[in-house]
Write a structure and sequence with these properties.
- By secondary structure, the chain is mostly helical.
- It has a single domain, classed as Orthogonal Bundle (Triphosphoribosyl-dephospho-CoA protein), CATH 1.10.4200.10.
- About 70% of the residues lie in helices and about 0% in strands.
- The protein contains 16 helices and no strands.
- α14 packs antiparallel against α15.
- The longest helix is centred in the N-terminal third of the chain and has 23 residues.
- The protein is globular, with a radius of gyration of 19 Å.
- About 50% of the residues are buried.
């Protein structure tokens, strides 16, 4: 039987990560992405809102499993992170009809949820402790976790995956090879980390989230006292220094780097804090809105959600 204190911790984590997702989705104008004042034809703002509402059970479950790890009732390899990711993706698909919305966010935030469950159980909560727990969790993943994440990707049907030289998601034999060769989810992400920033975060202990995005978010929030400005500027900061790998897979690394340079130029003009910056940002957003969404920096949005997750877990409230 789960004690009330444990339920409270898991519920707290779920609400924190839900809020983080809603803040990221609502930030505007987030260049090239769906936000509260801009939709895609087939995927609209309300699809993302519905998706965010569907996340709570998965994040609550992940946090509860983290609590069990802290209590030494299960080992980190028994968290079933892959199964939680798959189930959460299924929930998101059942709550909206706009296609893939939050796959990358779910993959990034599920280990954070479990790590927060551990950190909040052990008290007091420190970001350094959260990050240490994330490392413990992702490195303990199993081949079954990898197979479940492959299933989650198949359910979400994301665009722009490209083709991997080894264990490609679209290859029907990949899951068999994963189980036969005992390849953990962490090691699968090692393979893809050079061309996918979400995989790279898992492998490099969320270096973009903690070392780049979070400090910039905190600094901007302190200066402006405006979470929308802080979120959009964090998105731009990440994009300016980490070319979006979703873009790179679709259009090549040169185009992705060109867009990163443009993001830096927008930041240099002040972005949402100056009249010139607002005009440049609006123009940048318009430029990235091609009809086929080839210029959509979707991975940067997922990374921004991870930054907000850390901020809300650390006490930020709008």
């Amino acid at each position: 039987m789960i004690a009330k204190a444990e339920i409270d911790v898991a519920e707290h984590v779920a609400r924190c990560l839900q809020l983080a997702t809603l803040l990221e989705v609502s930030a505007y104008p987030k260049p090239g992405n769906v936000h509260r004042t801009a939709d895609f034809k087939e995927t609209r703002y309300e699809h993302f809102l519905a998706s965010a509402c569907a996340l709570a059970p998965g994040f609550r479950n992940a946090a509860q499993k983290g609590i069990l790890v802290a209590q030494e009732k299960i080992g980190p390899d028994e968290l079933e992170i892959g199964k939680i990711i798959k189930n959460t993706v299924e929930q998101v698909r059942s709550w909206q009809s706009g296609g893939n919305t939050l796959l990358g966010t779910i993959i990034l935030l599920t280990p954070i949820a479990s790590a927060a469950g551990i950190a909040l159980t052990e008290k007091p909560f420190f970001i350094s402790k959260l990050r240490k727990n994330i490392k413990l969790i992702v490195e303990a993943t199993t081949p079954i976790d990898a197979v479940n994440v492959y299933d989650a990707i198949s359910i979400a049907k994301p665009g722009g995956l490209g083709k991997a030289p080894r264990l490609d998601v679209a290859d029907n034999t990949s899951k068999q090879k994963i189980l036969k060769d005992n390849v953990s989810l962490f090691n699968v992400f090692k393979i893809s980390s050079s061309w996918d920033s979400i995989s790279s975060e898992w492998v490099n202990n969320y270096s973009i989230t903690f070392n780049l995005g979070y400090p910039h978010f905190v600094e901007t929030l302190e200066k402006t006292n405006d979470v929308n400005i802080a979120t959009v500027h964090t998105f731009l900061k990440i994009l300016s220094e980490v070319p979006d790998t979703f873009l790179a897979r679709k259009l090549g690394s040169a185009k992705a780097k060109e867009i990163s340079i443009q993001a830096q130029q927008v930041l240099n003009t002040g972005a949402l804090t100056t009249r010139e910056g607002k005009e440049k940002l609006s123009q940048f957003d318009d430029k990235l809105r091609d009809p086929k969404h080839r210029l959509n920096p979707g991975t940067t949005a997922d990374l921004t959600a991870a930054v907000l997750a850390v901020a809300v877990l650390n006490g930020y409230r709008p």
